[in-house]
Structures are given as C-alpha cells and as structure tokens.
Design a protein that fits this description.
By secondary structure, the protein is of the alpha/beta class. It contains 4 helices and 11 strands; from the N terminus they run ααβαβββββββαβββ. The strands form 3 sheets. The chain has a 7-stranded mixed sheet, sandwiched between helices. A two-stranded antiparallel ribbon has the order 4-5. It has a two-stranded antiparallel sheet with strand order 7-8. GO terms for molecular function: 5-formyltetrahydrofolate cyclo-ligase activity; ATP binding; metal ion binding. It catalyses: (6S)-5-formyl-5,6,7,8-tetrahydrofolate + ATP = (6R)-5,10-methenyltetrahydrofolate + ADP + phosphate. ATP binds at residues 4-8, 133-141.
Length: 189
Amino acid sequence: MSDKATLRIKYKKLREHFSEKAVEEMSLQIANQALKLPIWDKTYYHIFLTISEKKEVNTEYLLHILQGKDKSIVISKAEFSTGEMQHFLLQENTEIRTSKYGIPEPVAGLTISPEIIDVVFVPLLAYDQLGHRVGYGKGFYDRFLAKCTPNTVFVGLSFFDAELAISFESNDIPLDFCVTPKTSIDFRK
C-alpha cells in the first residue's frame, strides 16, 4: 500500500516530463473518454480550471463539451485562510484571474451551494483501484466533496493508470469514476 506523500512526489515528477503537446493530446483524449460516461443527463457540473504550470489535465476540452450541451458550469475559488472553496456559476461575464497560488479563479459571481452540484470533475495526482485519490494535500476537495449529496457523481481525471492501493483515512471520499486518455474506470461496481 502506497502512502500519499510518496505518491505526490512520484506523480509531480512524472508530470514534469510531459511536453505541452503531450498534455494537450492526452487532455483531449480524456475529454473524449468522458463522453462515454453515464453522466450527461445532469444539470450542474463542477469543473476545475487548469493550473498549466503543474501540467494538470487541461479541462478546456471538457468545458467546451459542457457548454455545447448547455449545462450549468460551476467553478471554484480557494480560500486558503479557511481551507474552504467558494463555488460560482460560470457565466459569459465571469472574470477569471490567477491567484497568488497560480490558480485560475473567478473574481466574483453568483454563488452555488455544493448540494445542488450533480457532477464534480476532480483534480488529482494519483488514484487506486478502489477510487481513493491523492490530491495536493491541502484537503480543499475532501472538504468540498463532503458537502455534496450522496447522489453527486465524482469523476477523477488522470493521465496515469491506477495504483494498486493507496493508504486512506476514513474521511477520504472515493471517486465514482476516473477517466484516463485510454479508458474510464467505474468504481461503483
């Protein structure tokens, strides 16, 4: 069983070696794989805005799919002083600025409660065969996912295959799906 700290180091290093072109190609493949998931009949979709310096999955492709399907898109702003995230409806006039932590975030807007969000696309560094995930370690997403309803669908996005097993705490919330460039995994079975 792998511990989270070791996996954070491993996957940050692996992502560093990706070219910009590779990140774009794999991100497009992930968006295409996501189209096969049974999630597209929902209304409110939470998506993270990519921190390109960290070579995260580029969510622009998924954003275009959501806009094309006329879905309500929710984005967040991290409040580092409280460890919480505020959620906003993405609208045409939503101003996005990069925070001092390098995170693209909405400046302001119409706030959305986590309880009405149907699907959350979750950023991660690693995940295992049971859907446990490793994030950056600040707990923002753990606290956010805990406020969603039991019916909310959590979809991880990853360039990599699953680890065998990751050590996890009782308050860690597992994913329902994880999408990679080659496949999507359903952890609900």
